[in-house]
Write a structure and sequence with these properties.
6-stranded mixed beta sheet, 13 helices, 6-stranded parallel beta sheet
Length: 356
């Protein structure tokens, strides 16, 4: 029997399970009946069953027969794609923490595809898993471009995935998510203004940063003073630059230096804290700080600042539930949105919705 034959039968049985013709927990026909149904030999059928067990679609129960797995991978296994080593980016680290926590909460298996843009092996695994229908859905922590590894999976219209609105939405089964960057800048400036700050500096990540654009627009609308020379865009590989910048700023005479700082990327918060610790500036008496902080694993730990950010537990939970809804109803969630929370608000925010 040809290799094509057992692969065809394997795909047929997977499709019968995915379509709901055979439901999780259902007992399959006997080997004799399966041989007749698919017109294959016992040897070929055994090869098919071996692969379907390995992929998590089937399971044997002693003296009872063959059953559809109660947790087949297309319903239970979710993927998270991280472009590079997560130690470089706090957002990726916290997404992993949240994804693990929400997968445990929902009883799902999480597969993390780390360092995809630098690894042929990771790309091969991702392509294999999607081609063999081993994932319920994938969360992309970034928007790949055509030359990136994994781009074919990202743009495959048959692959169910949650993707950032930044960079455009690929066709097909794509659910866009939005972190409200405009709200982040607006609420940070609300706080700084309430603290009496009219002279404000910005620490941001380099590149096309939507928070930076929103910040500059809000500064202009509010009539605040934040010249471009105080809007520092720094690569995350050079965190020490943020440390040096705040020391230089705080060495200025009191009437010439910022009264407030907005750290709009939480990768820089620890560096800013270290730099300020080397000065004699009193916080918050002489300087108020609004710091972006993605919430997942606990409270902010760096410095006396007003921290605000996005609830990544909520983001991942909504994403995993969107996968469940698609397989249960055939309906694709139109969008996932996350608002900004200050730490005290987060304590009152229902981070884990009921009905798990």
């Amino acid at each position: 029997m040809t290799e094509t034959k057992w692969k065809t039968v394997t795909a047929s049985i997977k499709n019968m399970i995915i379509s709901g013709e055979w439901m999780p927990g259902d007992k399959l026909p006997t080997y004799d009946e399966l041989e007749e149904l698919f017109k294959v030999s016992r040897i070929t059928l055994q090869q098919v069953v071996t692969h379907l067990k390995r992929d998590g679609y089937l399971e044997s129960v002693a003296r009872q027969g063959l059953f559809v797995s109660r947790k087949p991978p297309f319903l239970n296994r979710v993927g998270l794609v991280i472009p590079r080593d997560e130690t470089r980016m706090r957002f990726w680290r916290e997404l992993i923490n949240s994804a693990r926590a929400m997968a445990d909460l929902l009883g799902k298996e999480l597969v993390i595809y780390r360092n995809l843009t630098n690894s042929d092996e990771v790309e091969k695994q991702l392509i294999h898993d999607t081609a063999n229908k081993l994932l319920a859905g994938i969360f992309f922590a970034y928007a790949p471009v055509p030359e990136d590894r994994g781009y074919s999976v990202y743009t495959d219209p048959s692959v169910l995935k949650v993707v950032s609105r930044i960079g455009g939405i690929p066709p097909g089964l794509s659910i866009p998510y939005t972190l409200n960057e405009l709200q982040l800048a607006s609420r940070a400036l609300d706080y700084l203004q309430e603290e009496g700050c009219r002279r404000i500096a910005l620490i941001a990540n380099i590149g096309n940063n939507p928070t930076l654009a929103a910040y500059l627009d809000e500064i202009k609308k509010r009539g605040l003073y934040s010249p471009r020379k105080w809007c520092f865009q720094i690569a995350t590989e050079n965190l020490e630059i943020a440390e040096n910048i705040v020391q230089i700023l705080m060495d200025l005479p009191p009437d010439e230096r910022p009264r407030g700082i907005f750290i709009c990327d939480d990768n820089f918060t620890a560096a800013v804290a270290k730099g300020l610790a080397a000065t004699n500036v009193r916080i918050p008496e002489e300087l108020s700080i609004a710091a972006h902080y993605n919430w997942s694993s606990g409270p902010a730990e760096y410095l006396p600042a007003k921290c605000l950010g996005f609830d990544l537990n909520s983001l991942m939970l909504k994403s995993f539930r969107a996968f469940d809804e698609y397989y249960a109803t055939g309906k694709l969630v139109k969008k996932i949105e996350e608002s900004v929370y200050f730490e005290n608000e987060l304590n009152n925010h229902e981070k884990i919705p009921k009905g798990n």
